[in-house]
Amino acid sequence: MDDTLLALRAFNRFHTQFVVGLDAQYLGTPLTLTEARLLYEIGTRGEALAVELQSFLALDPGYASRLLRRFEAEGWIVRGRGSDARQRPVALSEAGQALLADLDTRQRAVLEDRLKPLGDADRRVLVGALDTARGLLSGEERAGYTIRTHRPGDMGMVTARQAILYAEQFGWGAPMEALLGEVTAAFLRSFDPARERCWIAECGGTIAGSIFATDGGGGVAKLRLLYVEPHARGLGIANDLVSRCIAFAREAGYTRMTLWTHTILESARRIYAAHGFRIVATATHTDFGEPVAGETWELAL
């Protein structure tokens, strides 16, 4: 069986148990997990046709009808007018709304208790991972992104993610990771907010990319460590980051901006060229293992 399928099935079992979905009575209410989902959907929609609920929740038609009959008998729903039962929309009654409110309160309490061990950083990672998983599995259009300046912990994350991506794509291992670590460590040690800046892109609360503007001396700014996570590409993040980096360098009074890249990084090179950078030097090196052509680009500010 495919590893992805195994992982998805394992997570599904974990998640069901995590939200106490295996209890016969869901969260101490008179509902099963399926009934709770049905109640929630009716409440969220305001009113809905039975066929819509059945389709959305992937329920057998007969089973869905039995659940709705039970809801009606318990006084949790009311039916509107229609030519037949299938065309009569259902909505929550006052009793149903009260039950849903109680269910929501209980679920929030359980989840808040489960999330207590997670700090703010871990919660941001969790939100980002859930957003990514939902987007990949649903095929929904990806959410937008935000850009902020750096905060504690970002340098380690940026170093790790870029090292992993370069190793996976090009086989650049320890030497590249060491270089990345040196750049981020030097940035933190000598950080001058008036002359230097790091921008972090986020999607769904988790890091999706970065760029640095550092002081190269002699009125020259350096553009460094531009990258975007694979799942966030195509949103315009790299172009936005480069634009911010150039604008900052101009405002800070630099006269030139330089960067070092490689011929195999074609997407990044196109962005640099679009912003007016020009190649001023090339040199093949073996710093990361196999020979690779490096390039120095420059932009007059």
From TrEMBL:
<protein>
    <submittedName>
        <fullName>MarR family transcriptional regulator</fullName>
    </submittedName>
</protein>
<dbReference type="Pfam" id="PF01047">
    <property type="entry name" value="MarR"/>
</dbReference>
<dbReference type="GO" id="GO:0008080">
    <property type="term" value="F:N-acetyltransferase activity"/>
</dbReference>
<dbReference type="InterPro" id="IPR000835">
    <property type="entry name" value="HTH_MarR-typ"/>
</dbReference>
<keyword id="KW-0808">Transferase</keyword>
<dbReference type="InterPro" id="IPR016181">
    <property type="entry name" value="Acyl_CoA_acyltransferase"/>
</dbReference>
<dbReference type="InterPro" id="IPR036388">
    <property type="entry name" value="WH-like_DNA-bd_sf"/>
</dbReference>
<dbReference type="InterPro" id="IPR036390">
    <property type="entry name" value="WH_DNA-bd_sf"/>
</dbReference>
<dbReference type="InterPro" id="IPR050769">
    <property type="entry name" value="NAT_camello-type"/>
</dbReference>
<dbReference type="GO" id="GO:0003700">
    <property type="term" value="F:DNA-binding transcription factor activity"/>
</dbReference>
<dbReference type="InterPro" id="IPR000182">
    <property type="entry name" value="GNAT_dom"/>
</dbReference>
<dbReference type="Pfam" id="PF00583">
    <property type="entry name" value="Acetyltransf_1"/>
</dbReference>
<feature type="domain" description="N-acetyltransferase">
    <location>
        <begin position="145"/>
        <end position="301"/>
    </location>
</feature>
